[in-house]
Amino acid sequence: MAVGLRLPRLLPWESALMSSSTLPGPQPLWKRELRIDWQRMDRVARERPEALLIWLGVALRVITYLWNRAMWLDELSLRGNIVEKPVLDFFEPLWNDQLAPLGFLVAERLIAAFVSTRNYALRLIPLVAGIASIFVFSQIARRVLPRRPALVALALFALSDDLIYYSSELKPYMIDLALGLAITLGTIRAIGGELSRRLLTWMAVLLAIAPWFSFASAFVVVGCGLMLVVDASLARRGWIAGIWLVMGLGWLANFTIAYQVSQALLSPYTTMYRFWDFAFLRLSIPMSVEDLSKTANLLLEVFVNPLNLLCPGGVRLGVILPLTLFLLGIPSLARRSSRAFLILAGPIAMAMAASVARRYPFHGRLILELIPAFFLTVAAGTEVFATRFPGAGGLVHRTVLIVLMTFPAWDALSNCTSRRMRPFQVHGDLHETVFIDRDLRKKPGGRP
Question: Whose CA is closest to 427, among 304, 250, 264?
């Protein structure tokens, strides 16, 4: 009589444990074979290019942040006003001729006091603002432009070297950008007929916090606010115009208080306005030849700092293509949607007016909140070539895109491959100037 031997049934976790004991342990990441599914990547690039560009922009900002480069001069000066300081101690001017919005300083002091004083912690707010800006900009581009130029604008934004770099710098520049984009998107939605209690609440919150976290957001608020009031008035919706007007007056009172507080934080012996003297537009009537030259050079310098659309080497002819695309994009945007065009142009006009009044420099890192309007306009200009030269498989349009995008893309990708050290610039910009160097060299010692 044969007797069968019945083995006990193993529980699932016991079976898994026994089988795993015979397998080799996990290999370190650097020993694993890197397998890239190129077909899947190609499919994603074709079917969801927006998502690919967004996450590429996010990755570049995070990689630059993780390199944890040493703080440069201005960051160290501002850090001295944050670390080991009482959170609400603002009874004296800031040290080292620094100035930053009160809300930004409070937030950074809270991080330094309760989280960490390391670079990673202190640069976290700009990183979050920089990443959030990509998602908000993608929505604006989708609403303002057709899909093809919207992708061009998103690529310019995601691969912008200035926006990548300043997303990991201890400065409030990326908050300027994020708040400006949020207010712009809310304005576009309101004018597009999406006015709701939720949108009104969101805009009220933005207007309440903007003056305390961003100086430059004032240009976006005024430009967009005027458009909202005028649009509602022309549509004979007086009650809506009244709501925007009341919210605008509330913002003005809030901004006045925040401005007075910020002035108290600025040392009476500041050299800030003298340092930025070269960056104030000179628009007087009549204009001298010198003033006209300096104003033109300062406006052209925008395509270098902060747009970074010129190849390095100081070749001024490189401005021809981006300037042409910008000029072509203005009527293109205006024809597509005059209201959207005015929403984008309004903040630029306000910033220029403040510069003429010598209240705010129109240059470089201080006007990052205007970058979206410039990129959208340049992208609209590229579409003009596609519509006017449709033959030969869009060869002219593709050539324009290649010439436009090659250097910004290469610069952004190459700068993320190592820990980047910011070179010293007399004007503090990220890139070598092209159009204002001649003006700076006229000054003794190279300083304006």
Answer: 304
Tokens 């330094």 sit on residue: 112
Instruction: Kindly report, residue by residue over 93-116, the tens digit of the pLDDT.
Output: 998 888 999 999 999 999 999 999
Structure tokens at 287: 């204009």
Question: CA end-to-end span of the chain, whole Å?
Answer: 107
Cα torsion angle, 283, 288, 292, 297, sign: negative
pTM as predicted? 0.87
Dihedral sign for Cα 105, 109, 115, 120, please: positive
Spatial distance between the Cα atoms of 163 and 202, rounded to a whole number of angstroms: 25
What one-letter code names the amino acid at 366? L
Helices in 358-430 by DSSP H: which ranges? 371-388, 391-415
Write out the H or E segment, with its range, that includes residue 321: helix 320-336
Rounded to whole angstroms, the Cα distance separating 445 from 288 reads 25
In the chain, DSSP finds a helix count (H) and a strand count (E) of: 20, 0
Q: Which residue matches tokens 């008035």?
A: 233
Q: Identify whether the C-beta of residue 370 lies closer than 8 Å to the C-beta of residue 351.
A: yes
| Residue 379 DSSP symbol | H
> Buried b vs exposed e over 242-253: b needs ≥16 C-beta within 10 Å?
ebbbebbeebbe
From 388, 400, 431, 429, select the one nearest 320 (Cα to Cα): 400
Between the alpha carbon of residue 208 and those of residues 47, 174, 239, the distances in Å are: 40, 18, 21
Q: For 303-326, what is each residue's pLDDT tens digit?
A: 999 999 987 655 788 899 999 999
For residue 347, whether the previous peptide bond is cis, meaning omega lies within 30 degrees of 0, is no
Spatial distance between the Cα atoms of 408 and 404, rounded to a whole number of angstroms: 8
Average confidence score pLDDT of the chain: 86
Q: CA nearest 368: which of 180, 223, 222, 154? A: 180
Q: What is the phi-psi region of residue 297: left when phi exceeds 0, alpha when psi lies from -120 to 50, beta otherwise?
A: alpha
Residue partners of 435: CB distance under 8 A and separation at least 6: 297, 298, 300, 301, 304, 316, 319
Distance CA 253, CA 250 (A): 5
DSSP label of 378: H
- Inter-residue contact 301 to 436 (CB < 8 Å): yes
What pLDDT, on the 0 to 100 scale, is given for residue 108?
97
Burial of 394 (0-12, 13-18, 19+ CB in 10 A): middle
* Residue 113 CB coordination number (10 Å): 15
Contact 184, 140 (CB under 8 A): yes
